Amino acid sequence: MSKTDHKSKSNGAVKNNNAASSKSNTATGRSKKTAISKAAAGSKAGDSRLQEFFHDEIKDIYWAEKKLIQTLPKMAKAATSEELRTAFNEHLNQTKEHVTRLEQVFELLGHKPQAKKCDAMEGITEEGASIIEETEQGTHTRDAALILAGHKAEHYEIATYGGLAQIAHTLGHQDIAKILETTLQEEIVTDETLTQLAESTVNEEASGE
Ligand SMILES: [Fe+2]
Ligand SMILES: [Fe+2]
User: Ligand 2 centre and the CA of 61: distance in Å?
Assistant: First the structure.
């Protein structure tokens, strides 16, 4: 594809997506979503490289979120303190919502939900599993280590959602950007909750073990 071809196709996609955005004030209206999906689906052949990259990265974070749905219950079960167990369980419920939101994003893009293996999250969750194996059950050191593993997962998500929301704005997908930013805020709050737990009790208790 020549540079000129790419540019004209890209502009076409953005124009189409802007038209789709203006039809929707909310991501939750069923009939509006269907209208947007059809509009977006019609622009698939003209997707720009950035649009294709964006779609690919949505598949990646979709896989990562699904992986976390399997991992968070294990982290909650392994936790020593009730507070940390509650934090992981609450974030599990949010994570299920993150998956649902990504399915809305796929629909807005005019694609079926599809997961693509995220090597980064695979590594982060493997490290989390090692932490559980290598620390003693019932200790605060176990919790300090679980919190660190949690921070690593959350920071990966914060980086991903922040970057993807920026690209969504650039592509003219304001409705998608809003969905991604809602999840981003929940990841940030979760990361802060973990920090508070570590600073208020867990690390101090662990240092005495
Ligand atoms: Fe998430
Ligand atoms: Fe998260």
Answer: 11
Q: Say if CB 118 and CB 67 are below 8 A apart.
A: yes
> Counting ligands in written order, which one lies closest to the CA of residue 65?
1
CA of 154 to the centre of ligand 2 (A): 5
CATH class label, 48-207 = mainly alpha
Q: How confident is the model at residue 2 (pLDDT cuts 50, 70, 90)?
A: very low
Q: What pLDDT does residue 158 have?
A: 98
Q: Amino acid identity of 164?
A: L
End-to-end Cα, the chain, rounded Å: 63
- pLDDT tens digit string along 63-75? 999 999 999 999 9
**Does the pLDDT value for residue 142 go beyond 80?**
yes
- Domain boundaries, given as residue ranges, for the chain: 48-207
Alpha-carbon distance of 8 to 86, in angstroms, equals: 51
Length of the chain, please? 209
CA 142 to ligand 1 center in whole angstroms: 23
Among 63, 48, 200, which Cα is nearest to 119's? 63
Q: What would the 3-class secondary structure string for 102-115 be?
A: HHHHHHHHCCCCCC
Using the mean position of ligand 2's atoms as its centre, give its distance from the Cα of residue 14 in Å: 30
Q: What is the pTM of this model?
A: 0.77
Q: How far is the CA of 144 from the centre of ligand 2 (A)?
A: 18
